[in-house]
Design brief:
Elements: E1 5-9, E2 12-14, E3 17-21, E4 25-30, E5 39-40, E6 57-61, E7 66-71, E8 79-85
Length: 86
């Protein structure tokens, strides 16, 4: 079964790749002491969180199918993807 939650811990998105259906809401939770963001990779994209402090969450509901790459703008080596299926 697909998960709709991503944990941000140890400077990584866990899991690094998830698959959800159109209309699903994904929730990211920061478990690290350092702040992190959930930001679409590239100039356009739907993900654009504020810096999340420890315990903060960010939610986004995916309205269209596709593969959405994202990263933490504070720590750009942290990357992950959400694949949205019809």
């Amino acid at each position: 079964m697909a998960t709709n939650t991503v944990s941000i811990k140890n400077f990584a998105f866990d899991p690094p790749a998830i698959t959800v259906k159109v209309g699903a809401t994904v929730t990211w939770t920061n478990a690290d002491q350092d702040p992190h963001t959930v930001t679409s990779d590239g100039k356009s994209g739907p993900l654009n969180s504020k810096p999340l402090n420890q315990g903060d969450t960010y939610q986004y509901t995916f309205a269209q199918a596709g593969t959405f790459s994202y990263l933490c703008t504070i720590h750009p080596f942290m990357t992950a993807t959400v694949t949205v299926t019809p």
